[in-house]
UniProtKB/TrEMBL annotation:
EC number: 3.2.2.26
Name under which the protein is recorded: Futalosine hydrolase
Biological pathway: Quinol/quinone metabolism; menaquinone biosynthesis
Alphabetical UniProt keywords: Hydrolase, Menaquinone biosynthesis
Function: Catalyzes the hydrolysis of futalosine (FL) to dehypoxanthine futalosine (DHFL) and hypoxanthine, a step in the biosynthesis of menaquinone (MK, vitamin K2).
Record-stated family: Belongs to the PNP/UDP phosphorylase family. Futalosine hydrolase subfamily.
An example molecular function term from Gene Ontology annotations: hydrolase activity
Organism whose genome encodes this protein: Paenibacillus marchantiophytorum
InterPro entries, alphabetized: FL_hydrolase_MqnB, Nucleoside_phosphorylase_d, Nucleoside_phosphorylase_sf
Catalytic activity: futalosine + H2O = dehypoxanthine futalosine + hypoxanthine
Superkingdom of the source species: Bacteria
């Protein structure tokens, strides 16, 4: 039997996933905390406790306008630390470009496509696409545009994926990141966040996951 670790930043995200999965002993849960540093540390600690076959990073996220609408789902086909680098007078250089390491963790493309197809077949609004990990949630149109230009096709941003995925990669454990969109990425408008809708989408997606994995 497979052993699957599900990591969410906070408890309400975990609860939404648990409601969707129901009682399925293949899945174990751990909190990552909010942000890339907490996520990396907690991911490494959890992965050291047992041999897992898969890590699922799940939670809410911002969606790039025109790419991922509020209430929809994004399955990462790549996990990218989009602000890990240096700011230049005329742009940005990533750690990769500087020769200091990697800002990308690959996911199993076939798995991401299979999960996306299953979500769509269940009638959910879902797509595969790059999911960015940022240290600072975007709050301006200028930053949203800069990130979209830096990572063509970027669908969503959140704050934990790359941390957990790096820990998983170092242990040779595959990752899946599934995000439910709670808000549009851009000028900060807290009143426009639809966290309840995103939790409902996350729960619905999780009920499909139990069948497809
Ligand atoms: O500003 C607030 O009032 C506020 C209230 C609740 C949550 C937040 C967050 O910033 C949550 C961050 C949390 O959720 C993920 N997330 C959701 N949307 C975004 C986004 O647009 N950009 C980055 N991260 C986002 C993230 O993974 C964190 O775990 C604020």
């Amino acid at each position: 039997m497979k052993r699957i670790l599900v990591m969410t930043a906070v408890a309400p995200e975990r609860d939404a996933v648990q409601r969707g999965l129901g009682h399925d002993s293949r899945f174990e849960f751990a909190l990552a905390g909010v942000g890339i540093a907490a996520a990396a540390v907690n991911g490494a600690l959890e992965l050291a406790k047992a041999e897992y076959d898969l890590v699922i990073i799940a939670g809410i996220a911002g969606g790039f306008v025109g790419k991922a609408e509020i209430g929809s789902l994004v399955v990462a086909n790549e996990i990218i630390a989009a602000d890990l680098g240096v700011e230049l007078l005329d742009g940005f250089s990533s750690l990769d470009e500087l020769g200091f390491g990697s800002t990308r963790v690959s996911v199993d493309a076939a798995l991401a496509e299979r999960v996306t197809a299953a979500l769509q077949a269940a009638g959910l609004s879902a797509q595969a696409g790059p999911v960015l990990t940022v240290a600072t949630a975007t709050g301006t149109a200028a930053t949203a545009a800069a990130l979209a230009a830096r990572v063509p096709g970027a669908a969503a941003e959140a704050m934990e994926g790359f941390g957990i995925a790096t820990a998983a990669e170092q242990r040779g454990v595959p990752v899946l990141e599934i995000r439910a969109i709670s808000n549009a990425i851009g000028p900060r408008d807290r009143d426009a966040w639809r966290i309840g809708d995103a939790f409902k989408a996350l729960e619905a997606a999780s009920s499909v996951l139990a069948e497809v994995l």
